[in-house]
Write a structure and sequence with these properties.
Length: 321
Amino acid sequence: MIVAKVPLRIPLAGGLTDLKHYTQDFGGVTLSTTINRYVYIIIKESYYGFTDLHYQDKHERVDTIDQIRNDLIRESLRLTGLENTPLQLNVLTDFPGESGLGGSGAITVGLLHAMLIFQGNTVTPEQLFTQAAQIEVEILDGASGYHDPTICAIGGFKLIEYHGNEILSRDVTMSERTKNEFVNKLLLFYSGRHQPSKPSLNILSRQLPDAYEVLHEMKQLAYNLEQAFGVGDLAKIGETIGQQQKLKQQLPGHFRDEFVLNVTERVRKAGGYAQIPGGKISAFVIVCCPKGNVDEIRAALPDLQEVRFELETEGSQVRQF
């Protein structure tokens, strides 16, 4: 039995500049970190002559790969050459799907990692994010970008640059004191607003030229944030995270409604900066409070559920049993 464990991620700046056509023309940049919340992929050989799949609240028993309704599972099996191998496969997640924390990218990375190890292959993070992006961005012709599979595969606190499908990453350099202060002033809240990213990102992709100016600014924010971490400027870090959200709300797509405006305003009045992660209005709210006024932020968001977390330094991992 193979078990893959892949971390979810929190984006901080540059998100949405990783979309395929933008990276081809201008190059994209993201700054993000993985956290200790995960997706798990369990694979073992099936002796029943069919493939048995469990994912989210769905159960499929299929005889051929073309019968699989889940796009990510089907294309991962096809890409790894396991389309004719009966398997038992389970997908488990710490959070429900469509949460905005990179779940789709993490699942694809985990599927590939587990399948490749099941075949006895040696696997690198670069292979994982390259093939995962191939499935999500190219094979499925989705509106998703390169960021999620990349950061979930490699893990850590990273600035990642995208030049078409060429991807380069580096650790965000900061002192331990800055990292500890930042983590202590970073909060995560659950709103329960689950919805797919594709409709929103399809709108953005269709109107991409109209979004260039805003996306250029978002890309620069990632570099600005890297510099702020380098010098330990917590005020600038918080401001930049908040600016990412302000710019996102100017883009074509589903990035703004009364909930978003209300939550970001409440956080700002309490002295913090809010960001709703992902290519939509997601199920989570990230809050940075550089003044350390975490209790005031919590009091300002009584209708949301706080989620405790820690940073995760590792990317996708696999164990065999």
